[in-house]
Write a structure and sequence with these properties.
Elements (H helix, E strand, L loop, with lengths): L1 H16 L1 H6 L3 H7 L6 E4 L2 E4 L7 E5 H5 L11 H4 L14 E4 L2 E2 L10 E7 L2 H4 L10 E6 L5 E16 L8 H14 L8 H9 L21 E13 L3 E12 L12 E16 L2 E17 L3 H5 L10 E3 L8 H8 L9 E3 L9 H7 L1 E19 L7 E22 L2 E9 L2 E10 L3 E2 L4 E23 L3 E16 L6 E14 L3 E10 L13 E9 L11 E15 L18 E5 L12 E6 L8 E14 L4 E17 L10 E2 L5 E2 L4 E21 L2 E18 L18 E4 L2 E4 L3 H6 L2 E2 L9 E3 L7 E2 L5 E5 L4 E11 L2 E11 L2 E3 L50 E3 L2 E12 L2 H4 L6 E14 L3 H4 L9 E11 L1
Parallel strand pairs: 4-7, 36-38
Antiparallel strand pairs: 1-2, 3-6, 4-5, 6-7, 8-9, 8-46, 9-10, 10-11, 11-12, 12-15, 13-14, 15-16, 16-19, 16-20, 17-18, 20-21, 21-22, 22-23, 23-24, 24-25, 25-28, 26-27, 28-29, 29-32, 30-31, 32-33, 33-40, 34-39, 35-37, 40-41, 41-44, 42-43, 44-45, 45-46
Length: 942
């Protein structure tokens, strides 16, 4: 920790010590150089290169430009819309690595306005130098840095409101009771609620005696809640020192307004700073620091969780004191002893079955604050070794991150009161009161769930870069790279260590060749198998620079092809060993409750697995081809990449490779079959981005379409299956497996004639399933592949319209080919669960022809509530994710003032979903609702 504080002090001292120097210097030539397009240089693995020299498998976003027209709160919210290849994963691989300024860090600890550019490294050749844990892709974030020029201050401020899209719709007390009685009748049981009770709950005459508790009522929820943010950026510098500092704060409230929940908030305060120093004509250095204070305060109530489970007739949160007869002093004294009499008129209601309720929790159960503190520091030194060898550089980086989290707060218990109601002369009154619990405040603050995470990054490299005779461009790199993360509660540290080598050549920026390789080292593997070699080769050809293309429609046309093998240990893991260490070793332990007579009374010995000293890395074997260019004087620009890759050697315990006596079936079970490299997964697809730019009169138009289509399949598995349709081989990796339905059973005769349903007792109104293997019974052998749960095709569409000082930006995302499953408690209503509106169209003998929901039951519904295509739906959709209008104040208006620039914006986010199943897609059950966000803000430059 002390090193972090030293880094922060060092950074701040250097930045502010040179602020006045930058404010006084006027270096016209350097200022003009700083005003060139920032994306002429693109950050790739351990270096930056000219954008025109990018080979395939790399996409880049200019976040400085995007922030001028599309303000967002999430660092990665624009990635899947602006470039192709990202859909919450990179080319179908979800475990991508996030790099921030060359360090392994979290993307959520960098705000969009702090970012200079985001580079998406997709291909094997683009990520190989980062080592084995980057084998599934890298998302590289480069933050802003200081530029030569006068002191410059940017101030951003914005405020906005979240509004809920939808709420779950649950049945009221009377309707619930009626249908629950029906469910009991379906199960052959007597009614649970009398008609009189149902009538009283429906009438609403006394909601305290006959409650109809609606947790989504406006009594407890706001129509909207606020988020506000303010950020200041200070930058500038001289040729010797450049600096950048950003500091800001945001605060967000919540939708709840009951009790202490009105004080719920999330806040974040941060300071980020960096300094670039010219220590010597041959030596430059950088120092970066960041500190983030994140807090999330909330009353101790699981409001949304209970809203999905608490039946509406069970609890009346508040009961008026006026119902207690004046002569009933005992009852009155019991209630008045409570510390929580609301408004002097109400006391907490409760029952023996439900002695607490969420409203009372919100007032009296205490509070909790989640606290997160993150400190980051990194430094870099570049030494020009040209005096020894022209074009030779040595670069070294070191960074440390420390994050700690804990919960603090106060827990309290409180008394609730259950009234015994009576009726005198047609008027309800409370005859007596039973108290449950008591009011207790310990006064002791609780500190719990303390956790920490510590990460260090270190790398060193020699770079050699020369241009010979203006035609031959050479680059070579030798590097050593390592990072390690230690987390509380985990014995083993997450480690990445590798050597790297890169040799690149291009002739006249026309013909390209690149060889990049890494030598990883992993202690997850047995000795002798811990080192490996990961080679990649990439070739490129810019056809637009050929003489035969001089008069073509193409301004630029780069063709690339790449092939490589990356050895990775990300998939050296198992369900019972998340860290993945020592999986190559045998596990032998005592087991069973008995012992042999010659074993001295000791338990029997059992094998959990055997050893495999030949275990090796999982290999990403990949071929890619890319086409990038522009046409008609950049009227249209495009970037297309085809990829096909295999993850070869995933771990499995393969029964087919070993004799059956290696496994003991019975008690205690035992097996000496080890983990071996066996499984193969294949991903094939194409990503694309196409932009059209056109000026029509005073209007500049830009239309962008990007996206990805990919297919993922299991190529190799060890299977012991009786029927081919149960095989995972050739099926999508991200798939639903379940039964195929054939509608509802209508009569007992149909049930008797149908194959035997083995998932519990079946009655008319239950779901009928297809017997896939015709064996006369429905069981797990009748499961089939139903469809992918992810979307194989995703596309982002964005439009920019500029007219004078106005800019309109809109973007949306299209998803096709995926399927969702209605399998949460809102749809799977069973037992004593809360009833939602979907049960209204349940099966009954009278609605048999039109019903869309099975018969109601008070059992666990084992036959109906299981994965099948009955509950599946297409999640094809188009989301209108953002619209923003920006107005930039004309320079002539600001001339003569201290303000150098001023702009205002208004935007709306998550506005619209167009889909057949929109209601299901926008519905959250057991958590806060999805929201739209409307925002106003400004940016000033001084």
């Amino acid at each position: 920790m002390k090193h972090i504080y030293k880094g922060l002090v060092f950074c701040a001292a250097l930045a502010f010590a040179h602020t006045h120097v930058a404010a006084q210097e006027t270096l016209v030539d350097l200022v003009e150089a700083a005003q060139t397009d920032t994306l002429q240089k693109v950050q790739v693995a351990f270096r930056s290169i000219d954008r025109s020299d990018l080979l395939g498998g790399v996409s880049v976003i200019d976040m400085k430009e995007m922030s001028e027209k599309a303000y967002t709160n999430n660092s990665l919210s624009l990635v899947d819309n602006v470039v192709g290849g990202f859909n919450g994963n990179i080319w179908g691989n979800s475990e991508y690595l996030v790099i921030v300024d060359g360090m392994v860090r979290d993307a959520n600890n960098v705000l969009p306005h702090e970012i200079d550019q985001i580079t998406l490294l997709k291909g094997a050749s683009a990520v190989v130098l980062y080592g084995p844990r980057a084998a599934k892709g890298v998302l590289s974030i480069t933050t802003k840095r200081g530029e030569v020029g006068d002191l410059r201050i940017n101030v951003h401020a914005n405020t906005g409101f979240y509004t809920p899209k939808s709420y779950p719709k649950y049945l009221g007390s009377a309707e619930y009771m009626t249908l629950y009685n029906e469910a009991r009748a379906n199960d052959g049981l007597a009614a649970n609620y009398s008609q009189g009770a149902i009538y009283n709950h429906a009438s609403g005459l006394n909601p305290y005696r006959y409650p109809n508790f609606d947790m989504y009522s406006s009594d407890y929820l706001k129509k909207a809640y606020n988020r506000s943010e303010a950020v200041a950026e200070i930058s500038g510098g001289s040729e010797k020192v450049k600096y950048y500092t950003s500091t800001g704060y945001y605060r967000e409230s919540s939708l709840l307004k009951v009790g202490n929940t009105e004080d719920n908030y999330v806040s974040r305060f941060f300071v980020r700073g960096n300094v670039d120093m010219q220590l010597h004509k041959l030596i430059t250095a950088q120092a970066d620091a960041n500190v983030t204070f994140y807090d999330s305060y909330a009353a101790n109530v699981d409001w949304w969780g209970q809203a999905a489970t608490l039946r509406p007739y069970l609890v009346s949160p508040f009961i008026p004191l006026s119902y207690i007869e004046g002569t009933d002093q005992n009852s009155l004294n019991t209630v008045l002893n409570s510390s929580y009499i609301k408004d002097g008129k109400y006391f907490f209601g409760g029952t023996q079955q439900n002695p607490t309720n969420p409203v009372a929790d919100a007032y009296a159960a205490g509070d909790n604050k989640f606290v997160s503190r993150q400190f980051q520091f990194n430094t870099r030194f570049d030494i020009n070794l040209s005096p020894l060898l022209k074009g030779l550089y040595f670069r070294a980086k070191y960074g440390i991150d420390y994050a700690s989290t804990y919960n603090q707060g106060y827990s309290s218990s409180y008394a609730t009161f259950s009234p015994v109601w009576t009726n005198y002369n047609g008027k309800d009154a409370i005859a007596s009161i039973t108290q449950y619990g008591k009011d207790e405040k310990s006064g002791n603050e609780n500190i719990s769930n303390s956790a920490y995470r510590y990460t260090y990054n270190v790398s060193g490299q020699f770079d050699y870069q020369r241009t010979i005779n203006a035609d031959h461009n050479l680059f070579a790199m030798v590097l050593a790279n390592a990072w390690q993360t230690q987390q509380s509660g985990r014995y083993h540290r997450t480690t990445n260590a590798n050597l790297g080598f890169q040799a690149s050549y291009n002739y006249q920026h026309k013909y390209y060749a690149d060889f990049s390789a890494a030598m990883p080292y992993s202690t997850k593997l047995p000795e002798g198998k811990r080192a490996a070699f990961s080679p990649t080769v990439t070739l490129g050809w810019n056809l637009a620079k050929e003489s035969f293309m001089e008069n073509s429609i193409f301004d630029d046309l780069m063709v690339t092809a790449s092939a490589g093998i990356i050895n990775q240990d990300l998939d050296i893991t198992a369900s019972d060993n998340e860290d993945g260490y020592f999986l190559y070793k045998a596990v032998i332990q005592s087991g069973g409750w008995y012992s042999w007579g010659d074993n001295g009374g000791l338990s029997a010995t059992e094998f959990q697995r055997g050893d495999n000293l030949d275990m090796s890395y999982v290999k990403r074997k990949e071929f890619t081809a890319g086409l990038r260019g522009s046409m008609w004087n950049r009227l249209i620009s495009f970037d297309v990449n085809f990829f096909t890759s295999k993850m070869d050697g995933g771990l499995a315990r393969t029964n087919s490779l070993y004799p059956n006596y290696f496994t003991q079936i019975g008690y205690p079970s035992s097996s000496i079959i080890p983990y071996v490299n066996f499984n193969v997964d294949k991903r094939t697809g194409v990503d694309f981005s196409v932009y059209a730019n056109k000026k029509v009169g005073e209007v500049d138009l830009t239309l962008g379409v990007s996206g990805m289509y990919y297919k993922s399949t299991a190529e190799k598995r060890d299977e012991n299956i009786e029927f081919d349709y149960l095989s995972a081989v050739g099926r999508a990796l991200n798939g639903h497996w379940g039964l195929q339905n054939e509608g509802f059973f209508q009569t007992q005769a149909e049930i008797d004639a149908a194959p035997t349903q083995t998932f519990g007792d079946v009655k008319p109104g239950d779901i009928r399933y297809k017997d896939q293997n015709n064996d006369g019974k429905i069981d797990d052998n009748d499961r089939v592949f139903l469809g992918r749960w992810d979307s194989p095709f995703m596309s982002g569409i964005n439009l920019t319209v500029k007219w004078r000082n106005f800019t309109l930006y809109a973007m949306g995302n299209l998803y096709l080919g995926g399927y969702g499953m209605k399998d949460n408690s809102y749809y799977w209503v069973k037992g004593d669960g809360k009833y939602s509106e979907v049960v209204r169209n349940r099966w009954t003998p009278e609605t048999a022809a039109t019903a869309t929901y099975p018969r109601l039951t008070t059992t666990d519904g084992a036959n109906n509530f299981r994965t099948s295509d009955f509950w599946m739906y297409k999640n094809d959709r188009f989301n209108l994710t953002q619209i923003q209008l920006t107005y930039k104040m004309p320079e002539k208006v600001l001339r003569g003032t201290f303000i150098k620039g001023l702009s205002f914006f208004a935007n709306a986010n998550n506005l619209l979903t167009i889909a057949k199943e929109r209601k299901a897609l926008e519905l959250n059950v057991g958590s806060a609702p999805q929201t739209r966000f409307y925002q106003l803000g400004f940016k000033g430059t001084f």
